[in-house]
Amino acid sequence: MFQCKDVAEEASNYLEGDLPIRKRLGLFLHLLVCSCCRNYLQQLRQTISTVATLRPTEEDATDTKALAEKLRTLSESKPR
Q: InterPro entries of this UniProt entry (predicted)?
C-alpha cells in the first residue's frame, strides 16, 4: 500500500501516466482513502494548468558580450 511520501515522490509520474499499472493502482487506492494526498494532487494539477496557461514571455535585451566583458574585467581586478 502506498504512503503519503510515496504519493509525493510519484505524483508527477502519475499525472503524466508514466507509472506501471501496479504502482498506478496502488497510488489510486491510497488516494481513495487520503484526502490530504487528493488535495496535494489537485493543487499540483492546478499549478501545472496555471503555468501552462500563463507562459510568461521573456524579453531579453541583455547585451551578453558586454556583460561577459564586464565580469571578466571584475574578476581580473580582484586580488586573489
A: Anti_sigma_zinc_sf
Number of domains forming the structure of the chain: 1
- The C-alpha cell at 79 is 586580488
State how far the Cα of 52 lies from the Cα of 46, in Å rounded to an integer. 10
Q: Are 27 and 57 in contact (CB under 8 A)?
A: no
User: Model confidence over 28-52: pLDDT tens digits?
Assistant: 999 999 999 999 999 999 998 888 7
Range(s) of the domain holding residue 25: 1-56
Q: pTM for this one?
A: 0.62
Structural domain contains residue 2: yes
One-letter identity of residue 36: C
